[in-house]
Amino acid sequence: MSTTNVSTAIPAGLTEDQVIAALHNHELMIKTLCPALISHEFESGDPTGQASYMVTDKKPIGQTTYKLTLTNVPSGVDSLVNAKPPVGTLTISGKWRVVDGKLVEDVEIDGNFMMKKMAKGNVEKTHPEQHGKLLEAASA
């Protein structure tokens, strides 16, 4: 399993409660996590607690559909991506937390060597921007 961490300071004027409310907004999380979103469909659960969605997203290797589960917790949200790309299974588990004035995301990636390396590089490249977009939406 491969792990990585992304941390972003919460801007002045934005409260931790505002950021947690944004993390608990599943529609906002889906749009933030999937910048090339094609479509998403509620699958099961409760959007105010834990819910699963089928997401279709455009990736560099083409269009992909995967299951995304979001679980609200008191200090943030847990995200779980279960994807089955042509080259194997990929699981990306994220813990988004508001801690000490920061938005902190711990990510665990599981899959074959090639998929883990590609996914980790993608997370490290794109998630700081996703944090920024989420914090911007939280202040609106």
Task: Write up what this structure looks like.
This protein is α+β, with helices and mostly antiparallel strands. The protein has one domain (about 1-135): Alpha-D-Glucose-1,6-Bisphosphate, Chain A, domain 4, CATH 3.30.530.20. It has 3 helices and 7 strands. It has a 7-stranded antiparallel β-sheet with strand order 1-7-6-5-4-3-2. A hairpin with a 6-residue loop joins β5 (about 75-85) and β6 (about 90-100). α2 (about 25-35) packs across α3 (about 115-140). The longest helix is centred in the C-terminal third of the chain and has 27 residues, at about 115-140. The protein is globular, with a radius of gyration of 14 Å. This is DUF7053 domain-containing protein. It holds the Pfam family DUF7053.
Ordered list of secondary-structure elements with their pairings:
Layout: E1 2-9, H1 16-23, H2 26-33, E2 37-45, E3 50-59, E4 62-73, E5 76-83, E6 90-99, E7 102-111, H3 113-139
Antiparallel strand pairs: 1-7, 2-3, 3-4, 4-5, 5-6, 6-7
